[in-house]
Amino acid sequence: MTGTVNLWALAKRTAFYLLVLAIIVESVFPFYYAILTSFKAGTALFEVNYWPTMIAWDNYIAVFRNGSFPQNLMNSVIVAACTVALSLLFAVTAAYALSRVRFRGRSILLLTILSVSMFPQIAVLAGLFEVIRAFGLFNTLWGLIFSYTIFTLPFTVWVLTTFMRDLPIEIEEAAIVDGAKPWTIITRVFMPLMWPALVTTGLLAFIAAWNEFLFALTFTSSNSTRTVPVAIALLSGASQFEIPWGTIMAASVIVTVPLVVLVLIFQRKIISGLTAGGVKG
Amino acid sequence: MTTESTAPVIGTLVHPHAPIRSELFVSRTRAAMLFLLPMIVALIVVAGWPLYRTIYFSFTDASLNNLAGAHFVGFRNYLSWVTLKSGKTFYSGVLADPQWWNAVWNTVRFSVLSVLCETVLGMIVALVLNADFPGRGLVRAAILIPWAIPTIVSAKMWGWMLNDQFGIINDLFLRLHLIDHKIAWTATADTAMTAVLVVDIWKTTPFMALLILAGLQMIPKDIYEATEIDGVHPLKTFFFVTLPLVRPALMVAVIFRLLDALRIFDLIYVLTPNSAQTKTMSVAARENLIDFDKFAYGSAESTLLFVLIAIITIVYIWAGRVNLEGGDR
Prior knowledge:
The complex is a heterodimer. By secondary structure, chain A is mainly α. Chain A is built from twelve helices and no strands. Chain A has helices at 2-38, 58-65, 69-100, 106-116, 121-134, 141-165, 169-177, 182-211, 214-219, 228-234, 245-265, 267-279. The longest helix of chain A is centred in the first third of the chain and has 37 residues, at 2-38. In chain B, strands 1-2 form a two-stranded antiparallel sheet. In chain B, helix 2 (98-130) packs antiparallel against helix 8 (234-262) and helix 3 crosses helix 6 (189-216). In chain B, 40% of the residues are buried. Chains A and B meet through helix 1, helix 3, helix 4, helix 5 and helix 6 of A and helix 1, helix 2, helix 3, helix 4 and helix 6 of B.
């Protein structure tokens, strides 16, 4: 009797671990295969292998020799970093006002911010195109930084507001009694407590800006101002019919590795940020 | 929505303890307005005004290189008709455009199928992650990888794997005798949508799983102990205990993904360019706006997509009774 029970338990355990294995393989395999492909050269590229067969750096060298790629990489770093800095600056001050001060119209404002995060990007594309051209920002990195706040700002404001709201009242009361002005309260009292939330929202905003495609494709028109996603999408070979899969995979690995490393290091923070952004708005 | 905040909010005059002088209240309110200003200005410039202009352009004859000289033309971009002497009526405009309705159908089909699959798969992954087993951290790390990979990169990676001649998917399926000849997954009319769905589901299931997991972790463990003692079948436990309790978190995740899926652009633009079988509303609108120089027409399409998403959002906020009070009820 106990024998069959044990067998049944063993079968269940095996099935469970097979499922776990399937999830891991399914998640990791495409990226693994991209890495494997990026290290192939010549005709080896067109043979299907499941395990690494060679390590050749040809594709990586080709990517960096391909004139604009280092520039594109730099552009992506600048755009993503500036977008994060700008959104955090605006969001911290706004979140303080939204979470700590009661004023008329606050719920309408929160509703508006929430609805902006639901905007389809395409709905503002035509209007933003006009605004960006009017400001002379077309085909500049500033145009991208400026337009990216449409999706980073609502999210950062929302998450930081919920975070600040849950901070205890006493810390602020003490500062008010000491006669601290609101700006001092934000920089001296709240900022030191908010580092975890700032890191989380900053990371999520960075990833969103780093990955953005539609605006980057539409608001830039030359190789020197393009960001990496657009550069990869437009990478072409010597002829129209010859797609340079090797260099595309190498470029893909280069832009993805930093993200994957960041995400794995800050796993817990990112998961809490994602669920806060999701569950709370 | 489901947030419960017990933290009191200060700055309110009505707050019972700590008699706050009204002078302080005024200065706080003034500072608050000043702090809100940059964000409000930014949102007006990048969201409010552009949205208004897109809607405005949809009622004009604007073209890409002559935005300033646009004239008001009423609903002509949406629908107009001429009746010939013979009695035949010709319709034109977005609402009479079969290509637009094809894009609408593609978008709806894509959104419903992808969200449905993601919900089921996300639930399975979340249930696995909610169990206690050695190596759980490893699984959680692994599922974050598809989420972290830029959409364009995942489109290219899968484009290579699904390649008709050299792709590993064809090789694998041939070895397993699932297919008897190589298939051009992204280029064939019958399989293009499947290819897009597979890549999207692969990329976004982790997000779904993490949101559902957050909901699962809020369910008290003793409920499960009780069902175990009572000898309830695990499937029954899932459908009558877990599912109802996780429903709020599940609904939020579903609506988030649905709104996201309805506006999909980048994956389709890169994985299956120029395919009538996968062209969605966003792709069609951008094509008219920028590539075909039918700026006003594209604006009308963008406006229609916005209206669709706005209706769904409003219904959701109304039905879900979202807490907009910022927490202090």
